[in-house]
Amino acid sequence: MKKLQWYCLLLLLLSSATIHLPAQNESLLIERGDLLHLLVYDTPEMEQHARVTDSGTIPFSFLGTVSVSGLTPAQAAEQIEHRLVAAGVMLHPEVSVRVEAYATQNASVMGQVQKPGSYEIDTGRKVVEVLAMAGGLTDVADRHITIQRFGAAQQKVEYYYSNSALTALSEDPMVYPGDTVVVPKAAVVYVLGDVSKPGGYPIITNNSTMTVLQAIAMAGYANHTAAVGKSKLVRATPTGVVEIDLEVNAIEKGKKPDVALLADDVVYVPFSFMRNIGINGQGILASATSAAIYIH
User: How far is CA 147 from CA 96, 122, 133, 243, in A?
Assistant: First the structure.
């Protein structure tokens, strides 16, 4: 008798519990041409597969057409539920809407990847996976990556591809069919003059910053013949070329703060005095345009 009572109580709890259908994907909007799979809980005869028309609608039993373009699957399901109640078809409908096939099956990867192009994906994929399809980043890629969402919303998702694998994977957003992934080129700073490896150095540090001392270190430090005390920072600005004296020795000793560099800045470490006669900021900037780019 006791087992029967427990069984009846269990049936009562189950019958009064709210049934929750699988969570919908909130990130992607339904677009024209998508194929949707629609389910109504406990009403299998209302299940259907419907293609979104050019006008952004789908046909639905007892309701005629329902506008779904520009909605998330969850929003579309909620709208159908409201329509079913308003039409007196059902009192408490529970609707599931899922994108079964997308209007487009490709995601584009552009910019600083090994193999830019269009890649077929039939569902959402992590951006790290999509970048792997494109062969990964080049040595001069900026790690600030933009995902341009497909469709009317034109949403942009900004993602920082950290040098730390744990961080990169934990903050890995989705790329959906039709999306475009853009990987820009990293900013470059130049170290010229009497250093071991004069040239350009992309800013691909994990915090996307570089200082004067870091740049000089990457260039192999100043040669023993260099006039380090006469070093300067040359920077192009909207109003002209600016030359800033750098007290490198004082910075190295911690007596002066290190200087943060901007894209296309040139740190110039002079040779002996006689070899620097006639060299100005404009000439230094011009030299940077033909400098070799080194990957660190």
Answer: 27, 17, 15, 38
